[in-house]
Write a structure and sequence with these properties.
This protein is of the alpha/beta class. It folds into three domains: 141 residues, no CATH class; 232 residues, Mur-like, catalytic domain (UDP-N-acetylmuramoyl-L-alanine:D-glutamate ligase), CATH 3.40.1190; 159 residues, Protein-Tyrosine Phosphatase, Chain A (Alpha-Beta Complex). Helices cover 39% and strands 21% of the residues. The protein is built from 20 helices and 22 strands. Helix 4 runs antiparallel to helix 5 and helix 16 packs across helix 17. GO terms for molecular function: ligase activity. Keywords: Ligase. This is Mur ligase family protein. InterPro entries: Mur-like_cat_sf, Mur_ligase_C, Mur_ligase_C_dom_sf, Mur_ligase_cen.
């Protein structure tokens, strides 16, 4: 029987937004029930066995809540009819009041999918006589019971320690830093990220592997002793997390990004998705969270693991709270990255200025990334000496951290290549640009964004860039426009730039062409920055061909000191 209410049936192979194990997610369109007169809606609920209900007005939020109750009852009744027994059910409203999402765990895929189809079949029987509805339920239940069970969930059960990193900004950098520390400890390390899968520093698979396939690829590699997995929101929403647990979870921060996609419309909803990583951390492990971000800090309450908080402020209330709860903290104390616990003296690791990624302490975001990486490594039980060696030898250039705050010197000016894919990332980039600008130098910025970013975010980045930089252009990411017309994206950026009085904003088909334009305009002391994703490798090759050199930690420190004085 064809259905009209079933919009999507999605199989989630691991921990997800709804459950800490594999689940089926159904998106349902309940227009018939939502738009029916109240007596008809109530009669349908009564026929299903829900006698005491108030449907509310047609198309209202009250009617949607009524529909949620009806759907939950349908799922549980069909589960009983098909012999499944007790079944956890989550039903959530969508922003469209005529739609809801229902999720339930599964242990046999084919039978679980059959249940999903049966749920839609019963909902599609709205308006039929009570006797027909009862027969539909009975027949659907029998069909689910007779369905061959199918495969169990493919969720991996790791045999080596796993660190899972999520957040809005800093995931890739923090993942790379933790992996680097692991190698400094003498371990064979594999890690997955938006850039690919690496084993002991060598790229083995190129592409975005921040989802379940990345974790699976790493854990399938023989001989590894530590897995570090970057875990993005998209993978959690589309397939769930590919591993049954992690030993250490890290959440860097939560800010607006990818809103309006996959049913995630608010920052709080985004935080709920990211928190899934902390909920599958082993009780004897550590949940590492940013104490300066309230949404991130709250995630410790839903994790079975102990909390290890990090904060740049040694007097942060979050640190006091976690230490009182018996956890640990990593912070900056008298200029030193320092570990605190409630029962021991502070343990200094190394000075912030001796961590090259912090750009002599200039980059607040990378100070936080270093604190997070140190916390995770120590939470794994790696020695303090390895943490110090790893943090002090991890470089901000393309060798260790390609595409993230890579800085070059060429013809007496500075070039910065950075992803900066959202407002928080652009804020960090502008902070760095200002921090290395020579006296009298200008800031020249190539803006850019994937095509699926919300208009308000793109406009905000245009406004932010034009307010701070002396010259802004747009460099498109052709492979990441995701069906959007670049001329439309130009206009959205320019709405932001015009709001601060900047009208002249040239646009270029690629990041590389935008960089060429700014390169020709640059003078001694200037800082040129490109928000780069697609052309990162070609930008690096082009800069080197132009005589650019990657800034060493010593060069960066001298630029910071020059800018400050």
């Amino acid at each position: 029987m064809s259905t009209t209410s079933l919009v999507e049936l999605r199989v989630l192979d691991g921990a997800n937004l709804y459950f800490s194990r594999a689940a089926i997610k159904l998106t349902l369109d309940l227009t018939a029930l939502m738009d029916a007169p109240a007596p008809e809606a109530k009669a349908f609920a009564s026929a299903l066995g829900l006698g005491s209900t108030r449907p509310g007005g047609i198309g209202s939020g009250f009617r949607q809540r009524f529909a949620i109750r009806v759907v939950g009852h349908v799922v549980r009744r069909l589960a009983r009819e098909s012999g499944i027994g007790r079944l956890g059910v989550r039903v959530r409203p969508e922003s469209d009041v005529r739609r809801v999402v229902v999720a339930y765990p599964w242990v046999h895929e084919d039978r679980a999918k059959a249940l999903g189809s049966a749920i839609a079949e019963v909902l599609d029987a709205f308006g039929r006589p009570d006797e027909e509805l009862a027969q539909v339920i009975t027949t659907a239940g029998e069909r689910v019971r007779d369905e061959p069970p199918g495969n169990p969930p493919p969720t991996l059960r790791p045999k080596i320690p796993v660190v899972a990193i999520t957040g809005t900004n800093g995931k890739t950098t923090t993942s790379r830093m933790i992996a680097h520390i692991g190698r400094a400890a003498g371990l064979h390390v594999g890690w997955s990220s938006t850039d690919g899968v690496y084993v002991d520093g060598e790229l083995v698979k190129y592409g975005d592997y921040s989802g379940p396939s990345g974790a699976g690829t790493v854990l399938a590699h023989p001989g590894l002793q530590l897995a570090v997995t970057e875990t993005a929101r998209g993978g959690i929403l589309r397939r769930g997390i590919g591993v049954a647990w992690n030993d250490v979870s890290v959440v860097t921060n939560i800010s607006a990004d990818h809103l309006g996609l996959g049913g995630i419309d608010t920052v709080d909803q985004l935080a709920e998705v990211k928190a899934v990583v902390t909920k599958i951390t082993r009780p004897r492990g550590w949940c590492v969270v940013n104490g300066d971000d309230p949404r991130t800090f709250a995630m410790r309450l839903g994790s079975p693991a102990k909390c290890w908080v990090f904060s740049r402020d040694a007097d942060s209330p979050s640190i006091r709270t976690v230490l009182d709860e018996g956890g640990r903290a990593t912070t900056v104390l008298d200029g030193w990255i320092t570990v605190l616990s409630g029962s021991d003296d502070p343990t200094p690791l190394l000075k912030v200025v001796d961590v090259p990624m912090t750009l002599a302490g200039l980059s607040r975001f990378n100070v936080e990334n270093a604190l997070a990486a140190a916390s995770a490594a120590l939470g794994l039980g790696l020695p303090k000496t390895a943490v110090v060696e790893g943090l002090s030898s991890f470089r901000p250039g393309p060798e260790h951290n390609p595409g993230r705050m890579n800085m070059y010197s060429v013809r007496d000016f500075t070039v910065v290549i950075d992803l900066a894919h959202n407002e928080a990332g652009l804020e960090a980039l502008l902070e760095i640009m200002n921090g290395v600008r020579a006296p009298g130098g200008r800031l020249l910025l190539a803006l850019g964004s994937p095509g699926d970013r919300a208009d308000d975010m793109v406009t905000a980045m245009g406004e932010m860039g034009a307010r701070v930089a002396d010259r802004v252009v747009i460099g498109h990411k052709g492979d990441y426009l995701r069906g959007r017309d670049p001329r439309e994206l130009d206009e959205v950026f320019r709405i932001g730039t015009r709001s601060v009085g900047v009208e002249d904003v040239p646009s270029f088909p690629s990041e590389l062409e935008a960089a060429n334009f700014l390169f020709d305009e640059a003078k001694a002391g200037d800082v040129v920055a490109v928000m780069a994703l697609q052309d990162r490798a070609s930008l690096d090759a082009w800069l080197r061909a132009e005589g650019a050199t990657v800034d060493s930690p010593e060069t960066l420190k001298s630029k910071v000191e020059r800018a400050q004085h």
